[in-house]
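Morning. Coffee machine broken again, so started the prediction first thing and wrote up yesterday's gels while waiting. Chain of 219 residues, entered below exactly as on the submission form.
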Amino acid sequence: MLHVFFSAGPLAAQNKTTTLKNYYATLLEWEGNKPAVMIEAWPRELVAAIEADVAKAVAEGALIGFRYPLEQADSTNQSMGNQIERGVLPRIAEKLQHFKMTKCPGAGYPDWLATRLADGLRMPLEIKATTHWDASDSNRRVLTSSSAKVRRQFTAPIHHLLLTILYKVEASSVAVIEGIRLDFLEPDTRVNVRLEASVNHRILSDGTHEKFILPKANP
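Came back before lunch.
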């Protein structure tokens, strides 16, 4: 189960389960945007083409068993994931023949985009990394919380791809790549929607609540 966040709305009850299609419809309404098709079904031939191209790139890049040194032995899971993404994605991307994977400009989802070279079709691509794949694991894997970047960077048809790097850690300092998982997300893919609230320095500074900074400055 993937998890998608947005600030509030009728589907934003804690851990509400819905589909990606319904999530985006509600998100657009909450954001005050016009209705739009934000996710479409994958054509079988496109799925097969991406799978074949990535499989070939993984094989030619000798990615399985590739040992990637971590920057520090006590890296957090998030830090390790970011390091592995930086080390592994270029090795896949450089071997692709019919698609390319590049960073997607701007903040937010998606971090990457996949482009079909034949016609320039652009697809949201999100990268994750995990030490193992457990089908019963219910830990959150945050996907998206805003439609802005998808609306800005992509036009219909919009097909969403999730690529997960599977690895193990040896001697606390080396990540060994064990596999690549591709999830071709569909309009009916089930997701959890979770209500979150956030603040920033400006909101806190302008707030009417009591506030202090210690030690207090001299008058």
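The two ends are 55 Å apart (CA to CA). Going to sketch it on the whiteboard this afternoon.
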